[in-house]
Write a structure and sequence with these properties.
The protein has about 230 residues and is of the alpha+beta class. It contains eight helices and four strands, in the order ααααααβαββαβ.
């Protein structure tokens, strides 16, 4: 059986050497690789220092060029594309995605790879400009307080100490940008106060020390973050 070159296969499907040749394929792969590195840099800049994650960005470069190659091959032959879909259906991701942002960035890499594979480089540039703008808008909105909840603060104290709750809230305002008392409960002489907050103006250690030194009536303080690393 004679080997069919990529160029012959493309020509057999109606594509000419002018519309797709080896140099164009290489260009698509290089553009996809550059776009994958750009996505990895955006992930590290906007999110890596705010959560644990699974460091999925390390797979972006290989993921990008692999998807681009697959979609270039799919354009060669319809039977080949059906076979690829069938073979790829057996792939399963065993490592759970720990951060919701990772889903968005993986989809961004996939979209960039498909766009590069179809040689729509202008659409790819527009996609990344819009993605970068949306990330900056999200960060700005968070700083302005539109996305205001970072976590939950639970403080337990004696019922006698609960009489100084207003003073405690004033102390917390020196450490937290925004806070709101959500609920209080009392049982067997112990009062529990639940406070949602946004923005840590100091560090977590100082916050703990300030609250514990506020009064001997304080029994415990627990901080529950909406996401790891959210107190920034």
């Amino acid at each position: 059986m004679n080997r069919i070159s990529l160029l012959d296969a493309l020509n057999s499907t109606g594509r000419s050497a002018e519309t797709m040749n080896l140099s164009l394929v290489v260009t698509a792969l290089l553009v996809s690789l550059a776009a994958s590195y750009a996505a990895a840099l955006m992930y590290r800049f906007f999110y890596e220092n705010r959560g644990t994650g699974s460091q999925a960005y390390r797979a972006f470069p290989l993921l990008g060029i692999a998807i681009t190659t697959l979609f270039i091959c799919i354009q060669v032959s319809i039977p080949l594309s059906i076979g690829l879909i069938g073979s790829l259906s057996i792939i399963r991701f065993r490592t759970p995605i720990k951060e919701p942002e990772e889903v968005g960035f993986i989809m961004l890499v996939i979209a960039a790879s498909v766009t590069a594979a179809t040689f729509n480089f202008d659409i790819l540039a527009g996609l990344y400009l819009l993605a970068l703008a949306s990330l900056f808008i999200t960060r700005k909105a968070r700083r302005l307080g539109f996305l205001k909840r970072d976590g939950l603060l639970v403080i337990t104290m004696t019922d006698e100490g609960a009489g100084r709750l207003e003073e405690l809230l004033e102390l917390l305002k020196k450490n937290l940008r925004r806070l709101s008392v959500q609920s209080t409960s009392s049982r067997e002489g112990i009062t529990s106060v639940q406070i949602t907050f946004s923005g840590l103006l100091t560090d977590a250690t100082r916050l703990h020390n300030d609250v514990r030194s506020f009064s001997e009536a304080i029994r415990s303080m627990n901080v529950f973050l909406d996401r790891p690393g959210g107190m920034r």
